[in-house]
Amino acid sequence: VVACLIIVLALVWTMPEIPKTVKTGEICLPSEIGPLKCGSTADLLHGYLEREIATKYDEVKRQDQEKQENHLKKVSARLMNIYDKSFWEMKPAAKLTGKEQPDLRKTDISADMVPIREWCNGRELYDTKGFMRYGIRYRNGRLVVPVDGTYFIYSNLDFFESCNPSSGLPDVKDINKPIKHGIFKFNILEGEEEELVTNVQPHTIPTNRYYNSYNSYVSSLVELKAGDELSVKVSNITY
Predict the structure, then answer these.
(1) Full set of structural domains in the chain with CATH
(2) Spatial distance between the Cα atoms of 53 and 70, rounded to a whole number of angstroms
(3) What is the dihedral angle through the alpha carbons of 216, 222, 225, 227, rounded to the nearest 10 degrees?
(4) One-character DSSP codes across 86-109
(5) Fewer CB near the last or first residue (10 Å), C or N of the chain?
(6) How much is the pLDDT for 2?
(7) Does the pLDDT at position 17 exceed 90?
(8) Which residues, listed in sequence order, are joined to residue 40 by a DSSP beta bridge?
């Protein structure tokens, strides 16, 4: 109330000379469309105060926002100086090792590539060189990315296939169908799976004529979004 009275007195002292034709119960105040506007005291005073207070409020709000931004910049810079090394070491990371795979699903029997559905995870990693850190999650044989960013992804697999001892040829239905190994990405919001990197190599005839062994390594730098799910696929899970 005191603040309003002070504002009213200040307006009365500083306003231009009021026309002599102003009636009782009326007042003349600066308007948004001209120097002075005369009319009902209550209506004009309410409108004028509303405009002035809104302007002052916007100014105070802007100044407060600037103070907050400056404070956050100072705090962020100080924290980065103190914990910079820790921040770099807290990047999402994971390394899993494989395990015995379940039987093929009906939908995978005729598929060109089959996902590896089982990996050592959780407490099973204690006995391996694997790990999961800083937000990476394991779900249904896939690694789920926690935050957007550039990730280095890789996969290394050893393949073994039996051969016909009499000829040395790989014991497969179609020797012309190559061995494939790759990493794929899926996001539930997009609904489609995307191939990120794949290695393709032909079947060979081993010198021992009993079995073949292959090694496949794939890697790439990729841009991933939070929620992306990474999976590893091969052309023949029995290898």
Answers:
(1) 93-234 (2.60.120.40)
(2) 26
(3) 0
(4) HHHHTS-EEE--B-PPPPPPGGGT
(5) N
(6) 45
(7) no
(8) 26
Within 13 Å of residue 229, how many CA atoms lie on the same side as its CB? 17
Euclidean distance between the first and the last CA atom of the chain, given in angstroms as a whole number? 85
Report the distance separating Cα 136 and Cα 189, nearest Å: 19
- pLDDT, greater one: 2 or 96: 96
pLDDT tens across 190-224, in order?
A: 888 999 999 999 988 888 888 888 899 999 999 99
Contact 41, 22 (CB under 8 A): no
User: Is residue 11's pLDDT more than 70?
Assistant: no
Residue of 218, 227, 177 whose CA lies nearest to 195:
218
Residue 139 has pLDDT above 80, yes or no: yes
Checking DSSP bridges between strand 142-144 and strand 137-139, what pairing results, if any?
A: antiparallel
Q: Count CB atoms within 10 A of the CB of residue 11.
A: 16
CA distances, 98 to each of 121, 130, 134, 140, 219 (Å)? 9, 10, 21, 13, 17
Whether 170 and 203 have beta carbons less than 8 Å apart is answered as yes
Q: ∠ CA 53-57-61 to the nearest 5 degrees? A: 175
In this prediction, residues 120-149 reach a mean pLDDT of: 90
- CA angle, 98 then 238 then 205, to 5°: 115
Task: Please choose, from the candidates 112, 144, 142, 113, the residue with its C-alpha nearest in 3D space to the C-alpha of residue 226.
Answer: 144
Q: What's residue 222's pLDDT?
A: 96
As given in the structure block, the two tokens for residue 55 are 């302007």
